[in-house]
Amino acid sequence: MFKQLPANQTETINIILNGQSLQVTKGISVAAVALSQNLGFTRTTPVSASKRAPFCMMGVCYDCLMVINGRANQRACSTMVQEGMRIETQQGVGPAMEGRKE
Amino acid sequence: MNNHYQLVIIGGGPAGLAAAATASAQGISCALLDEQPEPGGQIYRSIESVPDQRAQKLGSEYLRGKKLAAAFRECDAEYYPETRVWSLNKELEIGIIRNDEASMITADQIIIANGAMERPVPFPGWTKPGVMQAGAGQILFKTAGVVPDNGVVLAGSGPLLLLLAWQYLHAGVEVKALLDVTPLSNHLSAMPKFPRAILAHHYLTKGIGYQIELKRAGIPMLFGVSDLRAEGDEQLQTVCFKHSGKQKTIESELLLTHFGVIPHTWLSQAAGCKHKWDNSQQCWRPEHDEWGNTNIPGIMVAGDGAGINGGRSAEHAGRLAGFESLFALGLLTQEERDKLAAKDIKWKRDERHIRPFLEAYFQIPKSLLATTDNDTVICRCEEVTAGQIREAVQHGHDNSNQVKFFTRCGMGPCQGRQCSNAVAHIVADESGEAVADMGHFRGRPPVSPLTLGQLAALDKEESV
Amino acid sequence: MTTDVLIIGGGLMGSSTALQLAMRGYQCTIIEKASPGRHSSGVSAGGLRQLNRDPAEIPLTVESAKMWRDIESLLDSDCDARFPGQLRVAENKADMEKLEQRAALVRSLGYHHEEIIDKKELYQLVPALGPGCVGGLICREDGYGRPYHTVTAFRRKAESLGVKYQTGTEVYSIRKDGDDWQLRTSQGMFSSSILVNCAGAWANQVSTMLDEPVPLTPKALALMVTERLPHFVDPVMGAASRKLSFKQMQNGSLIIGGALIAKLDFEKEKTEIDWLQMAKSANTVVSFFPQLKDVRIVRAWGGIESFMPDNIPVLSASQTYSNAYHAFGFSAHGFQLSPVVGKVMSELIIDGKSSIPLDSFHISRFNK
């Protein structure tokens, strides 16, 4: 769907996208990475498990929600990639909550 | 950061930047809060960091932002990037998040300059991966140099569509087609407004110039398109539409749509400002005077967040709000304010010449605003369909807020940003009432993500 | 137009009363100044709670709980009601003593719906609870419903039995003309033989028109709702000695209440959140459930409620006029009582007395 145009002198950093290590341009959004890596979709909805991908890219649609560094419901378009960042496709409402186990 | 400023500006687009440069010239304490990491808002997004190569492909209007951002950097206003505002009230208390921490600051004057967003227009299949808003394409291009790699179909109505097609052309992107859904009847209804539009002929010549280039490049441009649908199993595979009385399809994995822009009013609503339905712009916007004052003393609005008039008008509106702030703070007399603002008042009025024509020409038809395709998802977050909304009206829920309570439309993460207008139109259509009487979803804070932990920390702060 | 009964207020109480009267053959018209459920009824946190009620309310709440368990046969809708129980959690010995005293009081009145549970059972019921709690008080049959759906269900059932909703209609004056009530409203004149005041936060306006003002205070209660979460808690949560109240709704979002006050401009019907108050509430939630700290609040709002000085409602005939009745002042805990209120009010109106004693709720307690 998308590709990143080559540019001179871009700094890169390392991130982990759905378990895969990647080198990406510093200072771009998680959504830009997800789209240019052709993930296809970035979450499935809680209501019907439908696939969704970033829609508005400006933080007003909340469709680009992903699990970032273990936190669910983060807007990928409003989050800049950081060194070592863990990014995962979000399934529904996200990973189960911690609970005290007997 | 201080706890209190004489002037706080919310938003780093042309209106906010111009307001800051104007007001801070008089030595007041002034802070500009920007959710983005660098100034420019959406129209001039990434204007400071964009590589020259990319900037050239984005066009001359975009480059205008460089001067604005530079003037802002030179002024004495404090700049707080990556700072989100989650609440504002009539006591002029502002809830902000910065570095993952919530705090509250106050101001004597506040200018809300948080701009516009794409008008969200639901159509069958619009929620599929592969369907995005045209502005999203521009943002990807501006901020990351990310462009479509397997071609793209552009569809909708509005000048931005033409601009994006031109930008993509210059970036070597295959634009498979530009599908213009502007009803051909609009050409007729817009004609009476054309003579005034000639006064802003730079807009018209620019638009015509883009069209000529696109045509020369062989990009198919179809007009009077209707029945737009995005089809595919789980993602977009085919764009379907009607043109010249025939059903047509284009294979594409990417469709970018644009149906005009509307003010982003969630903060001004949450603050309690009065809003009204603008029939010409087909949107809700905050009520304000020519300086930007709302019904709440101390809260002003400027730029596209107040009403759609474009980037240049936003600059003038920002300067007017800046002068008005200085007057309100007692640093300018009324005469001084009027004298300093005279040129901007005139230029802002000049910018209005094109608007009645543009608004009439690009009026989005009711068939799109109040879809009768009952399976179309209207509330993307809660997946509520047009059919469910119409059914709710039939059961006696006859305004936007009642439909919201009953169907959960507008209760998801986006809090109605993507569905509020469509719900108002569909409810109006189903109940036979005017859209203006449907009410908008009651905007409430927090209007930007605030976690329980971040909020809880406010309490500890106070008790320390 | 003339009818048997005019009811001022189209929220839960007005609708419930109208429904019960209609079921016994009375023609009712509801005069509603905005739209049904616009205020208290629509913004309720939806708690279906018998737990920790004023002893005067216990007979009512227990009867209402029975009606809720069978609400579908009354309203042709289950109102999406769930009954996972409601808890008050004890953090220490002093809390436990307080809860044990409460349990004893309820038992002494002949009721058994409030039970003490120990630490083991507490953590079995709520495994997600943070460490350090020592036990609790539970009502196993409590739960939550969906307020606006309930308003809608009452309304639709009432309408199907002939009740008329006159919305967008404000009452300007009330006059007794012989045996008839004459109401002058923004939509013209209405008259009836019987008048019922279910006007919620505006009920004192109405009772003043009947020459029996009451010390009613409208207040705005603040609530917050979060984004949807994976299911992690069943019962509705409260605390013995801290202001805590939250429930995880059917769709996974949390509604957080706890008797927090928002700022209110009653004239303009505008509420404003006091964030420092909300911060206290957030702090309480996170201290009981630390894993919730990253959960996003999507919305906070204030809902106008009508408070009586003794925090129990007015349910009685008028002191000053015959064929006038009152049902208001539910002090932010009316949702669960709504089915039974309609029942007892219809009995009071038609039979002259209700099946459940209402002496504690008489309007005369303010005008002795």
Fold and architecture overview:
The complex is a heterotrimer of chains A (102), B (464) and C (368). Chain A has one helix and eight strands. Chain A is mostly beta strands. In chain A, strand 6 (65-68) and strand 7 (71-75) form a beta hairpin. Chain B has three domains: 4-117 and 262-332, FAD/NAD(P)-binding domain (3-Layer(bba) Sandwich); 120-259, FAD/NAD(P)-binding domain (3-Layer(bba) Sandwich); 370-437, BFD-like [2Fe-2S]-binding domain (Arc Repressor Mutant, subunit A), CATH 1.10.10. Chain B is α/β, with parallel strands linked by helices. Chain B has helices at 14-24, 52-58, 60-74, 134-144, 159-170, 185-190, 194-197, 201-216, 266-270, 310-328, 334-351, 355-361, 366-369, 386-394, 400-407, 420-431, 452-463; strands at residues 4-10, 30-33, 78-80, 83-88, 93-98, 101-112, 116-118, 131-133, 146-148, 152-156, 175-180, 221-222, 226-231, 238-243, 246-251, 255-258, 261-263, 275-278, 283-286, 299-301, 377-379, 384-385, 450-451. Chain B is built from 17 helices and 23 strands. In chain B, strands 1, 2, 3, 4, 5, 6 and 20 form a seven-stranded mixed beta sheet that branches. The model of chain B has no long low-confidence stretch (mean pLDDT 94). In chain B, 38% of the residues lie in helices and 22% in strands. Chain C is an alpha+beta fold. In chain C, strands 4, 5, 6, 12, 13, 14, 15, 16 and 17 form a nine-stranded mixed beta sheet that branches. In chain C, strands 1, 2, 8, 9, 10, 11, 18 and 19 form an eight-stranded mixed beta sheet that branches. Chain C has a two-stranded antiparallel sheet with strand order 3-7. In chain C, helix 1 runs parallel beside helix 7 (147-160) and helix 1 (12-23) packs across helix 10 (338-351). The longest helix of chain C is centred in the N-terminal third of the chain and has 16 residues, at 93-108. The radius of gyration of chain C is 21 Å and the shape is globular. Chains in contact: A-B, A-C, B-C.
